[in-house]
Write a structure and sequence with these properties.
alpha/beta, 14 helices, transferase, seven-stranded mixed β-sheet, Aspartate Aminotransferase, domain 1, single chain, four-stranded antiparallel β-sheet, Aspartate Aminotransferase, domain 2
Amino acid sequence: MSKSSSLNKVFADLPVTIFEAMSQAARDNNAINLGQGFPDDPGPEDIRRAAAEASLNGYNQYPSMMGLPELRQAIATHYGHWHGLKLDPMSEVMVTSGGTEALTSAILAVVQPGDEVVCFQPVYDSYLPIIRQAGGIPRLVRLEPPHWRLNEDMLKSVFNSKTKAVLFNNPLNPSAVVYPREDLELLARYCQEFDVIAICDEVWEHVTFDEHKHIPLITIPGMRERTIKVGSAGKIFSLTGWKIGFVCAAPQLLRVAAKVHQFLTFTTAPNLQAAVAYGLGKSDDYFLSMRQDLTRSRDRLTRGLESLGFPVLKSQGTYFLTVDLSPLGLNESDTEFCWRIVKDYKVAAIPVSAFYEQDPVTSVVRFCFAKKDETLDTALERLSDAVRGRKR
């Protein structure tokens, strides 16, 4: 038997991610990419200038493994201001090379072989492979449109004495839900009853709309000592290529996550850290204006899609909105629809079924609206006939 046939099955058997597949299809078809979640502007100029200044005139050797002290302090101050969360920057805050590395450090710090980990479908694609690499067993909960909410029955069906952790994404990509306090309190009650650690993917925490406010699970009573909170400067500042992540947790949890981080990336570009520290100190007006700008883009794409006959589910947060194709009577799944529109109409989207491993919802499609007006308008023009003529 060839040694290549015995490579790590967790990763060797994984398909190309839907994000890469659809982005490649967008390139191949010269299509507008409303699939992958990145803006088409360069990001805040003052923060980019801060990074350039730090690169030219600052320190460019290995920074502290835990992150620049000024960034760790800025993270603690920022969360204290926005969420009333008091963190010790030296023992409860760590900087990583992006949110995915932060989540990987957290999962590998907590999960051992045989541990069960509760995950909610639709589930971000990195979660399950890392859980399995740690020897963990994912226990999947199926969320459904249009509300994608948690309930007592679904938690009761998966929490048990073997449950070690729950991986919870809020605001939820791809369904664009911002979970209310009652859902968080329900989840917190189960975490405490079964002595479970919550790993919270909260990278979209500043990207919320209308009356919806992000509430970190770590701030719910009883969760402070059993929650690992993950954030992302890339999402906060629309600088997705920078890959600056945050891990916030009680010292006994952070110490082990830091040991994992030490052997993954060890540290992160110091000039980008310095610029993020500057950005986190910006006035509230910056963050509120960012939300207003994204709200306008969300509403522009929503109105346009609805005018074309698409049933849009209201987006409460993230860069995304979703369309439920089921009322349209189309003779195709969400995946078939996405492949058709990228080839025939030159617009890329993501089928939400790709975020399910079991019993997928097959009628929902995700579009990214974090784009310039002209990009959205051109996409809408191209999609003008995508519904008509395809009905049964």
